[in-house]
Design goal:
CATH architecture of chain B: 2-Layer Sandwich
Structural class of chain A: alpha+beta
Low-confidence stretches of chain B: none
Number of helices of chain A: 4
CATH class of chain A: Alpha Beta
CATH architecture of chain A: 3-Layer(aba) Sandwich
Helix content of chain B: 25-40%
Order of helices and strands of chain A: HEHHEEEHE
Shape of chain A: elongated
Strand content of chain A: 15-25%
CATH topology of chain B: Heat Shock Protein 90
Radius of gyration of chain A: 16 Å
Helix content of chain A: 40-55%
Distance between the termini of chain B: 18 Å
Largest sheet of chain A: 5 strands, mixed
Largest interface: A-B, 29 and 32 residues
Number of domains of chain A: 1
Oligomer: heterodimer
Structural class of chain B: alpha+beta
Shape of chain B: globular
CATH superfamily of chain B: Histidine kinase-like ATPase, C-terminal domain
Number of domains of chain B: 1
Strand order of the largest sheet of chain B: 3-4-2-1-5-6
Strand content of chain B: 25-35%
Mean pLDDT of chain A: 84
Order of helices and strands of chain B: HEEHEEHEEHH
CATH topology of chain A: Glutaredoxin
Mean pLDDT of chain B: 87
CATH class of chain B: Alpha Beta
Largest sheet of chain B: 6 strands, mixed
Number of strands of chain A: 5
Radius of gyration of chain B: 16 Å
Strand order of the largest sheet of chain A: 2-1-3-4-5
Number of helices of chain B: 5
Low-confidence stretches of chain A: none
Distance between the termini of chain A: 50 Å
Chain lengths: ~120, ~180
C-alpha cells in the first residue's frame, strides 16, 4: 500500500499525462495525411513528432492527422496551433524540419522561417 | 506510394474522411497473393466514380489519386480492386488482391508500423484487424479494446503503440510477409 503523499504524486503524474490524449493541451500539431502527404513521407513526420514528445515528456502537445491541405507539391505539411495564438502552417516538413520546429516553435514559441508556409490562416 | 504499407494507410484515411468510426480489415497472404478487405461504416459511395482519378469530392484539389493508384498497382500484378457500397444507409467495402511474387509488385513495406501509425493518427477510430488462415479468421488487433485498457496517459499510449508493433511483427512473420 502506498502512503497518501505517494498517491498524490501519482495522481499529479496521471493528470499531466492525461492532457496528451484528452481535450486539454497547449499545442496541437496537425499533419496532412492525404495521399500526397503519405507519399511524401508524412508518416515519418508524425512519428518524429511523437518521438520528440516522448523524449521531452511534453504531455501538453498533441499530434493528430487531417486530409490533404491542398498544396500537394509542398507536402509533408503541418499546422501548428499554439494556445491563444494564430495557427502557423509549415511546408516540406521532413524529420529534420520536425526537430527544428519542435525545438523552436513548440518549445520556445519562435517561428521557423525556413519552412514557413503561412501564418494566421487555417 | 512506395509500398503496400503506404497504400493501406492511405485507403484507411479514405474511411476516416467518409466519417467512419469503425473499420474492419481482413488480410491473408497465400501462395504469394496478398488479399485485403476493408469495410467501414462511413457515408458510402454512390458509384464507381471514386476509381476515376479526375473525380473528387474535396475542394482542396481537383484530382483524387489514392484509389486509382492502388487499383493500378493491384492490376499491374494480375490482381484486382473492387469497391462497393455495403447497404443503403452507407458503408463501403473495398477488396483487393495483389500477386506479390509478380515482377511489377510493390514491396510490402513496414506493415506493423502502418497499424501503429493509424492508432496514433486517428484516436477516435476503432479498427479491428483479422488475419485469415486456412478459412479461419483470427482477430489480431482491436483498437477499441486497447484504448479501453489505457488510462489515457502518454506512457500508456506509447505502450499500446509498442504492443501493436509486437503483435503485428509476429503476425507478419507467421504469414511469411517479407
Amino acid at each position: 500500500m502506498k502512503n497518501l503523499d505517494e498517491l498524490k504524486i501519482m495522481r499529479e503524474k496521471v493528470k499531466r499525462d492525461l492532457q496528451l490524449r484528452a481535450g486539454e493541451h497547449r499545442v496541437k500539431v496537425v499533419v496532412g495525411m492525404g495521399s500526397c502527404g503519405i507519399a511524401a513521407g508524412a508518416r515519418d513526420t508524425m512519428n518524429e513528432f511523437l518521438e520528440l514528445i516522448e523524449k521531452n515528456k511534453k504531455t501538453d502537445v498533441i499530434v493528430t492527422a487531417s486530409g490533404c491541405f491542398g498544396f500537394c507539391a509542398q507536402e509533408p505539411m503541418i499546422h501548428v496551433y499554439v494556445e491563444d495564438k494564430k495557427p502557423v502552417t509549415y511546408r516540406n516538413v521532413d524529420k529534420e524540419a520536425a526537430q527544428e520546429i519542435f525545438n523552436n516553435h513548440i518549445l520556445n514559441n519562435k517561428i521557423v522561417e525556413k519552412y514557413l508556409f503561412s501564418k494566421g490562416k487555417k | 506510394m512506395k509500398n503496400l504499407a503506404d497504400h493501406l494507410f492511405d485507403i484507411f484515411e479514405n474511411s476516416v474522411n467518409a466519417n467512419a468510426d469503425m473499420v474492419m480489415i481482413k488480410i491473408s497472404f497465400l501462395e504469394g497473393v496478398f488479399y485485403c478487405s476493408i469495410t467501414d461504416n462511413g457515408v458510402g459511395i454512390t458509384g464507381e466514380e471514386v476509381l476515376d482519378p479526375f473525380v473528387t469530392s474535396r475542394k482542396t484539389r481537383r484530382v483524387g489519386l489514392g484509389l486509382p493508384l492502388l487499383k493500378k498497382a493491384a492490376e499491374d500484378t494480375g490482381g484486382y480492386l473492387k469497391i462497393r457500397r455495403v447497404n443503403r444507409s452507407g458503408g463501403t467495402n473495398l477488396e483487393f488482391e495483389m500477386n506479390m511474387s509478380h515482377i511489377d509488385a510493390k514491396p510490402f513495406g513496414n506493415l506493423p508500423q502502418t497499424f501503429a501509425d493509424i492508432y496514433s493518427a486517428w484516436p477516435d477510430i476503432d479498427l479491428k484487424l483479422y488475419v485469415i488462415k486456412k478459412n479461419k479468421q483470427k482477430k489480431v488487433l482491436d483498437f477499441h479494446e486497447m484504448r479501453g485498457e489505457e488510462t489515457l496517459g502518454l506512457s500508456d499510449f506509447i505502450a499500446s503503440r509498442r504492443r501493436i508493433l509486437n503483435i503485428m511483427q509476429k503476425e507478419v512473420e507467421a504469414l511469411n510477409i517479407y
